[in-house]
Amino acid sequence: MAEFFSKKRRDPEYVPDDLTEIQHVDEVLKFISAVSGDERYAEVAIMNGSGKERIKNMCDVAERLDRRGFERGIEQGIEQGIEKGRVMEFISIRTEDGYSKKQIIDSLVKRFHMTVNVAEKMFQENDC
Question: How many domains does the chain have?
Fold first, then answer.
């Protein structure tokens, strides 16, 4: 554990690669979470009790953290894609209804809480 904190202090992006088997997984992960201030380790401890694959070493911890980050990235990408679709549909409907570019951009800023630059970019993308 001392080695982990030493490497983590020198490199905040350090990914554990130790194959030493952890005897008290939940306690170690909760301790690391508390001392490092990184809640992801506590989340891994919670996930450890609910999954088929038990954590044996810090490599397993790193793998879980990577997997969870990947899953969150996919979720965010899907949410962003859905939101972009809503914006594009909004622009298309407003354009068909005869609204001016300025009116549509103003509506995008208010309705979707985006900057004028982002609204203009979305408008241009929809115009292609």
Answer: 1
